[in-house]
Amino acid sequence: MTGNGSDPELGSEDSRLVSLEERLDRAEAAEAKRTAVNAGPESDANYRLGNRVLAELLGGLIGGGLFGWLIDRFAGTSPWGLLVMLFLGIVVAFRNIIRLTSTPRK
To answer: Residue 97 burial (CB < 10 Å; 0-12/13-18/19+)?
Structure first.
C-alpha cells in the first residue's frame, strides 16, 4: 500500500468491475431483446379473440347442460332434456364462433 491512500490494485479492480458491469448490462439487454414477447396490438387482438371463442364454447356447453338438467329435474324427462339442450348449446356455440370469426376485423 502506498502512503497517500491510493492502492494501484484497488484502481485496477474498479476498472475491471466497471468493465464487467458494462458487459453484464449488454448481455442482459441482449437476452431481454431475444426473449421479448411481441406485445403489439395484433397479438392483443388475437388473444382477445381466442378468449372470446373459448367463452362462447364454454358458455354454450355449460348453459345448455344447465338448462337441460333443470328441464329433466322439473319435467322428469331424464336424460333427454339434458341431451337435447346440450346439443342445442353446442350448436349455438359453434354458430356464434363461426359468426365471430367470419366477420372482418379492422
So the answer is: middle
